[in-house]
Each structure stands twice: as structure tokens, then as C-alpha cells.
Automatic annotation (TrEMBL):
InterPro entries: AAA_16, Cyt_c-like_dom, P-loop_NTPase
PROSITE patterns the UniProt entry points to: CYTC
Domain (Cytochrome c) ranges: 166-332
Pfam families attached to this UniProt entry: AAA_16 (PF13191)
Domain of life: Bacteria
Molecular function GO labels: electron transfer activity; heme binding; metal ion binding
Official protein name in the record: ATPase
SUPFAM superfamilies on file: P-loop containing nucleoside triphosphate hydrolases
Keywords linked to the UniProt accession: Heme, Iron, Metal-binding
Organism: Intrasporangium chromatireducens Q5-1
Region (Disordered): 1-21
Transmembrane segments: none
Length: 420
């Protein structure tokens, strides 16, 4: 079929043509927006899930909903090597500009506070030329959100931007991607600020997205974070939604899938949104005519898997050092041993491989004990701590509970075993 009209869009954070299976989250967020606009109390939101399940796409969709509701919004991606002040100040700046507050002097006052908050990022004693200058064309306002204590300053910042939004009957929403990468002190400050704002009833919420261990990161920072946020786990799509993600875009281009082709697609993608788009794009280019058949899926599978092996799996594997790669391969082996002893769940990652798309079949890799990884390598667990900690910082694995680890990427274990 014509590759120019190919409707599928695999990409990091790129919205698919059909955002299937996320209607519940979108409807719930619309309710949150309306409740806060009416002065009702609501919790901030945290989306969690593996790589490739569409967290960033959903985060962007929620932001679009806030924009349509005339809220002020700002977004940034957390990074392990960056503290909170600069990116949050930029997000707050954008949110205030979107509000369209009619009183310019009030807006300038808050923008000056945002600028002061951002400039406090410089170390004490830094010269003026060494201080970061945010692109805010008003003088910095001293004495507010610039104490140097990030927790105090963030509470004051949220209070001021929330007050500005309340003046015009709107709200402020700050969207944070890769939230698990925030510095521990910044996580603590963010929780404290959300807690304070929820008690004061100001129309400010934080919507974060991150890996499955993000709730544990928040809980370790503030014990009340379990009640502070509304947690939503974003997972692979059920069969009906996965079919819709394929059929809807194809139908707009005059193409159909046979029922056998849809079943074959679900077998190889396991309902993971990124895999659906990746396979869909290759199948479209390979299939000669409509309707797409199960045979077309079989023919396209090797090429799709090859692209995933390079772009989705391989690019992450290349970020690891030799010692870290050894640890990753041992994790994959330990998972297979564990599955053979306990019996895999149907379609689970520990299930015996079969077929050309074997490492894509089934569910995500279950957590394995760190001691099992050490056993595979014939070493003491303590000696492997540096490699494990480095892989966690790189976002390749996560620890949901003490002594357990798992891959952040679906079916990474199958990929690693296929490379050995």
C-alpha cells in the first residue's frame, strides 16, 4: 500500500492517530478540571507505567484538555542532572501567560516572583553574570519564593500563581514527565507544596508521569504522598482498544484488517501502544492491498522486530557499560529460571519463546530478586550494587520494592536473550 498515506506513528511521545484505550483517564481529568474550577478540592495526579505504554502521549493529551478549559499550563521533563527551579520556573511562566489575566500589574508582580524563584538557583556568592537569567521581562521581586529553601519557596510560588488563577476563575496545571528523575529534595518540596495548596483550596494541580516505582519515590519523600496524589497505572491496551488503534486510522485511508490479522497483531504487540504503532507502520508498507491479512503480519514481523531491536531496545542497551550489560543479561536469565520454577503466567515474559516475534509476545517482565541475579553471575549481591544503581539512574531498570528489580522496557528480557 502507499507508504505516503501510512497513518501509523511510532515515536517517543508522538501522539498516535487514534488515542485508544485512554478514554477513562481523559474523562476523569475533565471532572478534575471542572471541580477545581468550581472551588472543589481535588488531588494532583500521577501516571505510572513502563516505557512504551503511552504515558507522555497521555500527559500531553491531559494538558490539551486543560488548555481547552482555558487553564494556564506548563510542562517540563525532569532530568537527573538538573534541579527543579529552572524548569519549573519556565513552566510557571508559560502557565501565567496562558491565563490572560486582565490586570497587568498583578501579572508583572507574579512574573517577578517567578524570576526571583528561578534566579535563586545560583549558588550563594555567585556574581551577577554567573546567575541564570530567565526570559522574563520584569524585575525580580525580592522577599518572596527566594529564601533558598526549595520547600518554602515552592509553597510561596504555587500560592502566588494559584491566587492569580483564582482571580479569573481559572486554574494552573503543571505537567512533569519522567518525574522519578527529580532530586530527592525537590520531590519532598513538590509534595509539601501540593499538600499546602490542596489545604488552601487554590486552583493549582501537578500532573506527573513516571516509571512504575514513582509512587515509592514519592512515599519515601513524604509519608502522606499516598493520600496526596491520585495514582493511575497506565498499562498495555486490552484487545478491543488495540484493535481500535489499528482499525480507526486505517479506515480513514480506505484500508481494512481481517479478523485473523487483528488477532495476529495482538499476539505480536501484546497490546503495547508503541509496538502497535511500530508494527502497524511496517505492516502497512509491506501489505500489497487491503484488507491486511495474517500472512502480511507474518511477512512484516522480521522487519518490525529488526527496527525495534535497533531503535527501541538496542538504543537503550547501548547506553549501558559492559558491566551493566552483564547485569542486564543476568536479569533476563534469572527471569527465565524463575519462570521455569514457578510456572509463567499465560503469555508472560518467562514463557518459552516460539515464533519470529517471540520476544514481543506476552506480558511485561515480572520483578526478580537481586539475589537471583547474583546467583546467575556467581557473585555476592553487594558487589553488583554499583551496576544495579547505575542502571536505575539510567532508567533501564527499577526497584518497586526492596530486593526486587525489573526492566522498565516491556520484553527487554526477551530481546536480551535473543542477542545471546
Amino acid at each position: 500500500m502507499d507508504p505516503v498515506t501510512n497513518p501509523y506513528a511510532p515515536g517517543a511521545g508522538q501522539r498516535p492517530p487514534e488515542l485508544a484505550g485512554r478514554d477513562e483517564q481523559l474523562r476523569a481529568f475533565d471532572v478534575v478540571l471542572e471541580r477545581i474550577a468550581r472551588g472543589r478540592s481535588e488531588r494532583s495526579i500521577v501516571l505510572t507505567g513502563l516505557r512504551g505504554v503511552g504515558k507522555t502521549v497521555l500527559l500531553n493529551a491531559l494538558r490539551s484538555s486543560a488548555v481547552r478549559a482555558n487553564w494556564g499550563t506548563g510542562k517540563f521533563e525532569a532530568r537527573p542532572d538538573q534541579r527543579l527551579r529552572r524548569p519549573l520556573a519556565a513552566a510557571a511562566h508559560q502557565a501565567v501567560r496562558e491565563l490572560g489575566h486582565p490586570r497587568g500589574e498583578d501579572v508583572d508582580q507574579v512574573l517577578g516572583i517567578i524570576k526571583s524563584f528561578a534566579m535563586r538557583d545560583a549558588p550563594s556568592g555567585a556574581k551577577l553574570r554567573e546567575r541564570w537569567q530567565p526570559g522574563i521581562d520584569v524585575p525580580a521581586v525580592s522577599g518572596r519564593a527566594d529564601s533558598g529553601d526549595i520547600e518554602i519557596d515552592l509553597v510561596e510560588l504555587f500560592t502566588d500563581i494559584g491566587g492569580l488563577a483564582a482571580d479569573v476563575g481559572k486554574g494552573i496545571a503543571v505537567f512533569i514527565d519522567e518525574m522519578q528523575d527529580l532530586d530527592p529534595d525537590d520531590v519532598s518540596a513538590l509534595c509539601a507544596a501540593c499538600h499546602e495548596i490542596s489545604q488552601s483550596g487554590l486552583p493549582v494541580i501537578v500532573v506527573g508521569a513516571g516509571l512504575p516505582h514513582l509512587p515509592a519515590v514519592l512515599s519515601a519523600s513524604k509519608s502522606y504522598s499516598e493520600r496526596l496524589f491520585r495514582y493511575q497505572r497506565i498499562d498495555r491496551l486490552p484487545r478491543e482498544a488495540a484493535d481500535r488503534a489499528l482499525v480507526g486510522p486505517a479506515a480513514e485511508e480506505g484500508c481494512e484488517f481481517t479478523s485473523e490479522a487483528l488477532e495476529a497483531m495482538y499476539d505480536v504487540t501484546a497490546g503495547y501502544p508503541y509496538f502497535i504503532q511500530a508494527y502497524g507502520k511496517v505492516v502497512w508498507d509491506v501489505a500489497p492491498v487491503s484488507p491486511v491479512t495474517a500472512e502480511d503480519i507474518r511477512v512484516a514481523a522480521p522487519e518490525a522486530e529488526s527496527e525495534l531491536a535497533v531503535g527501541f531496545f538496542g538504543s537503550r542497551y547501548e547506553r549501558a557499560t559492559p558491566a551493566e550489560r552483564e547485569y542486564l543479561r543476568a536479569m533476563a536469565e534469572a527471569a527465565l529460571v524463575n519462570a521455569s520454577q514457578t510456572g509463567p503466567e499465560p503469555g508472560g515474559d518467562g514463557e518459552a519463546e516460539a515464533g519470529p516475534a517471540a520476544y514481543l509476545n506476552g506480558h511485561e517482565l515480572s520483578a526478580v530478586p537481586t539475589s537471583a541475579v547474583a546467583d546467575v553471575l556467581g557473585r555476592k549481591p553487594q558487589s553488583l550494587s554499583p551496576a544495579r544503581d547505575a542502571l536505575i539512574k539510567k532508567g533501564l531498570i527499577y526497584s518497586g520494592e526492596r530486593g526486587q528489580i525489573a526492566f522498565t522496557v516491556p520484553h527487554f528480557g526477551r530481546y536480551l536473550r535473543s542477542q545471546s
